[in-house]
């Protein structure tokens, strides 16, 4: 063996093959290999039927929906050289603000487009979530069930908490245990928080990771009890530059939001309404929806 | 005497060649970072930006020091073992840094990155100990 490796390049050849194999494995493990950890049981048929019975006939147009429990209106505006889709949503109960996983499965690299997940849930309105399945850290609590209690590293750990009354708040994962949040309705982990107590809490240098550019964005905010604003902006195209986090925060503040939180953006940013994708999703290279781990939606 | 001179020249040439290869790899690492940056939508990663330091400082500079200070250690049979282990360490650290850069820019992470750094640092440490032992033995033999 010693003689074998003493020849020039033999060690290099063997080690290079091993190293390339390790690199390929890590890339596949991170980006491709699916790991299903929990399959979410669908709501029982009885509960679903009871809920459906409580719906009145909705009034639906291209950009609005209204029934006894859910009222949605979507407007498209141009601001900051970007096309921005703003949804004003009011519900009668927090239980109509839901989340769902791709393929109803919590895990790593389990993905589907926002519209596919939304259709599977009969969602009326949906946006992409926090893409939790792309990371190992970050709290995940959905529809009242805790799936992940690993906090992200300090400084990049704002989590969105939606309590059982439907109120939004932003907490630091390092300063708040998952145990203390477990009685809430939803916890999403992306960030940062944009508006807290009516004040903008990002500045012109704030960004997701180290990015400093304008991007497609998805974010959710709250005006008052059970009254929400959801904003998705197009970006990375000649028609729409995209928003900085500060510009996004200003959009929420101008609309009277007391709390607002940034969700996964870039190629993930998608707004779905009544069977159609509203915005123009793109990652800057190709157009069309990117597959994501999860959605936030309004529906029954 | 003439034959011995030729051998030493040959060893020095090999060491300088290794240093130059590492210098070229440093430049390639800088180019990779710049090209990757074009597709990163302004997102940067320190791990990818600075990965060229592994082949530059750990490779080119170290072999330049060997060339200037103790070129004759290349005559030892064990030099090949140092060469293999140390270079493997630098390669592992460089690729670990590259992977971390890719994951940082994509907004994800992997627990296996720590394994790359651990193996890389272990190999580099082993290599440096071997280099030190070789250098001490060389000085002793020359004394």
TrEMBL record, chain A:
GO function term, MF aspect, one: hydrolase activity, acting on glycosyl bonds
Chain coiled-coil ranges: none
Keyword Hydrolase included in the entry's annotation: yes
Superkingdom assignment: Bacteria
The entry's keywords: Glycosidase, Hydrolase
Domain Phosphodiester glycosidase: 122-298
Organism per entry: Acetobacterium tundrae
Protein name as annotated: Phosphodiester glycosidase family protein
Matching InterPro entries: NAGPA
